């Protein structure tokens, strides 16, 4: 299996501090982290934080030898009023030295104040490309929401944008919850446009919020890995565990789920080494 970056999304620690996330992720043996800057949900880092606070987080990451290679900065990219917020997120991701910035097309956890067709969305995203180029970032659009919940839909938008700076973040459980599709088949249809993956498991009924540690649900990860291998796609993995709507019982449950996910990947021949 190809070497690839394997990270943990700090959103796994929703409701807990970034320091707690850093400690748990590093303890499980990871060297990479996806920071979360999602308005109204998980704001582990955020553009309006005091500069001293951002520097302190940067120091914590360095001390833990965790590289912040990506940042979730979800904004409604269909809403002209939210585009300046997303540009701030791009600059924040650059501050932390990230290579990727993640966003859904619509809001991740807020109500959408605007909607648009794929061509209009593509025009809005294309206007972000100069900012992405300036800061050396790739925007990876997440399979998220009922209108944009499959890789096939996002492939259409990515191709309309027509920039190597804009690709897909394929979330292996969101495509089930929102898109109602089989992740393996859907990934195969869009794999050439995928540059990033949220490895997220799915338990319970397809339409129920239930995202356990890797290997504790029913997503066919060996099938996912096989599609990527066949395509020669070595995109980074970022583990995301969101539990049920009740949330985790405590911090120890999150730490254990992160450790269980690390063990699952190692058992399937993947390495967490620093690349």
Q: What is the CATH superfamily classification? A: Divalent-metal-dependent TIM barrel enzymes
Give the overall silhouette. Answer: globular
Uncertain residue ranges = none
Percent of residues in β-strands: 15-25%
Explain how this protein is built.
The protein has 275 residues and is α/β, with parallel strands linked by helices. The chain has a single domain, classed as Alpha-Beta Barrel (TIM Barrel), CATH 3.20.20. The chain is 38% helix and 16% strand. The protein contains ten helices and ten strands. It has helices spanning 18-27, 51-64, 83-95, 118-126, 129-135, 151-161, 174-177, 183-190, 221-231, 251-267, and strands at 6-9, 32-36, 67-72, 100-103, 138-142, 166-171, 194-199, 210-211, 237-239, 243-244. An eight-stranded parallel beta barrel has the order 1-2-3-4-5-6-7-9, surrounded by four helices. The longest helix is centred in the C-terminal third of the chain and has 17 residues, at 251-267. It is globular, with a radius of gyration of 17 Å. The mean pLDDT is 95.
């Amino acid at each position: 299996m190809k070497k690839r970056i394997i990270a943990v999304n700090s959103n796994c620690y929703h409701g807990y501090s970034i320091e707690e996330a850093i400690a748990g992720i590093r303890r499980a043996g990871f060297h990479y982290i996806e920071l979360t800057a999602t308005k109204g949900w998980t704001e582990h880092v955020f553009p309006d934080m005091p500069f001293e606070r951002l520097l302190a987080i940067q120091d914590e990451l360095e001390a833990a030898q965790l590289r912040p290679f990506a940042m979730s900065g979800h904004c409604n990219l269909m809403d002209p009023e939210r585009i300046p917020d997303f540009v701030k997120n791009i600059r924040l991701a650059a501050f932390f030295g990230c290579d990727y910035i993640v966003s859904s097309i619509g809001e991740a956890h807020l109500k959408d104040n605007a909607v648009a067709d794929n061509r209009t969305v593509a025009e809005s995203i294309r206007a972000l490309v100069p900012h992405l180029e300036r800061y050396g970032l790739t925007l990876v659009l997440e399979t998220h929401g009922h209108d944009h919940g499959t890789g096939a839909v996002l492939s259409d938008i990515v191709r309309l944008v027509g920039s190597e700076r804009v690709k897909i973040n394929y979330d292996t459980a969101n495509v089930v919850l929102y898109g109602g599709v089989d992740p393996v088949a859907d990934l195969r249809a869009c794999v050439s446009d995928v540059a990033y993956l949220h490895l997220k498991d799915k338990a319970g009924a397809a339409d129920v919020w239930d995202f356990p540690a890797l290997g504790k649900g029913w997503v066919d990860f060996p099938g996912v890995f096989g599609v990527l291998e066949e395509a020669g796609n070595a995109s980074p993995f970022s583990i995301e565990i969101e539990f049920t709507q009740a949330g985790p019982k405590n911090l120890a449950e999150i730490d254990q789920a992160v450790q269980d996910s690390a063990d699952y990947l190692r058992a399937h021949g993947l390495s967490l080494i620093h690349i």
